[in-house]
Amino acid sequence: MSKVKSSETVKVVIRCRPLNRKEEAAAAGVTRTSGGVGGIVEMDMRLGQVVLWNPHGPPGEPRKTFTFDSVYDPSSKQRDLYDETVRPLIDSVLDGFNGTIFAYGQTGTGKTYTMQGVWLEPERRGVIPNAFEHVFTQISRSSADRQYLVRASYLEIYREEIRDLLDPNMHAPHVPNVHTHTPRTLELRESPESGVYVRDLTSCVCKSVKEIQELMNLGNQVRSVGATDMNEHSSRSHTLFLITVECSLPGPDGRQHIRVGRLNLVDLAGSERQAKTGVHGERLKEAAKINLSLSALGNVISALADGRSGHVPYRDSKLTRLLQDSLGGNAKTVMVATLGPAPQHYEETLTTLRYANRAKNIQNQPRVNEDPKDALLREFQKEIAWLRAQLSHREGRGKHRKEEGEEGWDREGDEEGEEEVEKERTLQEGRLEEEKEAIREDGSLLAEEKQRLLGEKERMMGDLKKEWDATEQLTAKYKAMESKLLVGGKNIMDHTNEQQKTLEIRRQEIAEQSRREREIEQQVMVQDEETLELKETFSSLQQEVEAKTKKLKKLYAKLQCVKAEIQDVNDEHVRSRQELEQTQNQLTRELKFKYLIIENFIPPEEKNKIMNRLTFDPEEDQWKFTPLVPAERSGQFSQMKKRPASAVGYKRPISQYAQVSLVMGAHSRYRAENIMFLELDMTHPTTVSLDHRPSEVGPNYSPYPTDNVPHRERAARVRMSRSWCQTPRAITSSTSTVSLTTHSTATPTAAQ
Ligand code: ADP
Ligand code: MG
Which of 335, 341, 332 is nearest to 358 (CA)? Predict the structure, then answer.
């Protein structure tokens, strides 16, 4: 069941960072804007407007104005953005909505600063750490009848591959050098219940801010590996931190209902142009992938903003598929577009502003996820209830035993402290010991009878021990499960006192107030323009002419703006087409190279075999090999997967000769390298003496005997040369000398 809320647009805010030192030095003495000295961006925080001027344009060129939900100039604080823009979104997630915040912009404009910030300085902490605090504080302040389960996952999309940054194998203490491993890659799947999701993505239950921060740190360690090895890897991938908050609360029908809110915190890779960065080789491939996924994102935004095109190309990239819910889906979305005020990045800044301007028109239909089938909290609750039942059942058995006349059992319920349980255990054991002692000392019993009774008591003791151990295990499991659930009404953090709560509420109210004011001002501005002419009355013809001329001038300026806009959009289109062409050329080159290898080095029959096994997986959007043995029959043919073992215990097939020589402890080179069984020639090697005196050396002299060696002998020598490995006993240093000599004498003869 889900409650449908009316549709709402994607919230788009702009943030401009201050000029950095290099940029300031380059632009010293030029105009001063709110972006700083030499900046090309002006911001009106009250109206939510960004004004951009072209540093290379002619002097009279009109400035470009864009209006957004909010804008944050370089002097704005992290807290301002959070309170005004992010806080309401996180509150919605806690109420069971899906929420997404993504940072978009050129590299170095402050995406990561906005999303993460400086963790150690509270003033400069970004959206993610503030969201962590917010989630857990709100949980601690909620009413006591609510139970929460918070989970987190962390992934990155690098070169169109989804990598799990919390992969336990990467972080396991036994893995010797985690830096040599790459995180495993995962697949995207889609289900009608939970939409698009990442299969087998690690998700960790978090009980506090500290725990979730540790997870983020762990993930960042894996990411930062690439920053050294692959040169600026961190800005070369898109990262997504996913927090799932499940809340169980009593509904109006008196039953417990579960709401699940998912929060996606996305830091996109830089949107700069390939041409500008001047990258080659591998970096170019990376850039091509980034550009492709970002242009896929752009296409999705355009298609959604347009509203007319029926097809939205979500499937063009992993990023757009993952953000499917957030763009035009059932999530509440905030886009933070980041800008730099430096003149040299005018084009990128304009592109970012256009991108953001388009995204403003996307309509989402946020709804509360109520009682979804895959809620983990429900499973936890069921498991806890089962464990509790088991424990009380055991307790019941204990009580029963007590009623039967046994002393010492005084357990009241499962809230009883551990100490008491332990005391009880010692008491029971002591009692059994006493009984055993009593039997031993009882003189009236026969020896046999005594033995039987003692054995019985011993067995009882064993049973009791087993039962206690099982109970202990159950209690531990129960406690572990229960500790994962957070219950409202408990102060998790010390500083969540009343004063702070009031302060936060005030801040929120102020933020809400200024947001409303801005909205009204924007509406008034639009209305003013429309109604101005209606109010005007003219007393004379002259006055009317003046007014109309003024209006004409205004409209003419507007027309010029629109024309310039059209020109800009065309230029932009041409540029992006050129870039796509460049990427296409690169890919065609690679394809040709691969074709060349296939055509020249792979036999056609092998190629056909491979081709026959290939199938296209539309879900994953890639070609895959069908397994040789169908999955359902693989059990039957399990031996087919195994490597044939020709010699048990050896690494590879081994000849009989090598086996024999191994047994005899012969030379180590025969251990595993002879894979053929060669029948041995037992003839003794023959050598020819090279005892020639220099005086006998004539013009036709050859050191090798030729005509004077009979044919049969020659043939034998050829044979010998092939079979110089004699029986194991024959392998001595002298044999090998002989064989070498034979070889040198025989070869030229055979060649004749
Ligand atoms: P991106 O992630 O977009 O590539 P970064 O977030 O790494 O860019 O920012 C680049 C640099 O600019 C960092 O040194 C960061 O501290 C600084 N910076 C970005 N935004 C701001 C801001 N609003 N105020 C101060 N410094 C900023
Ligand atoms: Mg970054």
Answer: 335
Highest averaged pLDDT of the listed ranges 3-17, 292-306, 585-599: 585-599
Pairing status of strand 11-16 against strand 70-72: parallel
Element (H, E) at 409: none
Q: Which amino acid is at 29?
A: G
- Closest residue to atom 24 of ligand 1, CA basis: 17
* DSSP secondary structure string for all residues of 458-513: HHHHHHHHHHHHHHHHHHHHHHHHHHHSEETTS-SSTT--HHHHHHHHHHHHHHHH
In degrees and rounded to multiples of 5, residue 393 shows phi and psi of -65, -45
DSSP characters over 113-164? HHHTB-TT-GGGB-HHHHHHHHHHHHHHHS-TT-EEEEEEEEEEEETTEEEE
Query: For tokens 């979305």, what's the residue?
Result: 333
Cβ neighbours of residue 77 closer than 8 Å, sequence gap 6 or more:
123
Place of tokens 């002259």: 542
Q: Which of 3-7, 93-97, 606-610, 693-697 has the lowest mean pLDDT?
A: 693-697
Cβ contacts of 271 within 8 Å, gap of 6 or more: 104, 105, 106, 107, 290, 294, 348, 351, 352, 355
- 353: number of Cβ within 10 Å: 20
CA–CA separation, 363 vs 354, rounded Å?
17
Ligand 1 atom 9: residue of nearest CA: 110
Which protein residues are within 6 Å of ligand 1, measured from CB? 17-18, 105, 107-113, 235, 270, 338
Ligand 2: centre distance to CA 352 (Å): 15
Mind giving me the DSSP string for 506-544? HHHHHHHHHHHHHHHHHHHHHHHHHHHHHH---SSHHHH
Among the residue ranges 44-53, 120-129, 453-462, the one predicted with the least confidence is 453-462
The DSSP 8-state label assigned to residue 18 in this structure reads: P
- Which two three-digit tokens encode residue 523? 């509406």
The secondary element (H helix, E strand) that includes residue 615 is strand 614-617
Q: Angle of helix 418-441 relative to helix 447-484, nearest 10 degrees?
A: 180
Pairing of strands 147-158, 161-164: antiparallel
pTM of the model: 0.69
Number of the ligand 1 atom closest to the C-alpha atom of 103: 3
HSE, side-chain direction, 13 A CA sphere, residue 107: 17
Q: Compute, in angstroms, the gap from residue 176 CA to the centroid of ligand 2.
A: 29
Closest residue by CA, ligand 1 atom 1: 108
Work out the end-to-end distance of the chain between its first and last CA atoms, rounded to an integer number of angstroms. 93
Kindly identify the ligand whose nearest atom is closest to the C-alpha of 224: 2
404-428 pLDDT, tens digit per residue, is: 444 333 334 445 556 666 777 788 7
Question: Which residue, among 47, 562, 40, has the nearest Cα to 348 in the 3D structure?
Answer: 40
Output the CA 394–ligand 1 centroid distance in Å.
Answer: 60
Cβ neighbours around 248 below 10 Å, total: 20
Which of 228-237, 596-605, 616-625 has the lowest average pLDDT? Answer: 228-237
Q: Side chain identity at 298, as an amino acid letter?
A: G
Give CA–CA dist 579/487, Å, rounded.
53
Of 113, 118, 123, 124, which is best to mutate to test ligand 1, by the most ligand atoms within 8 angstroms of its C-beta?
A: 113
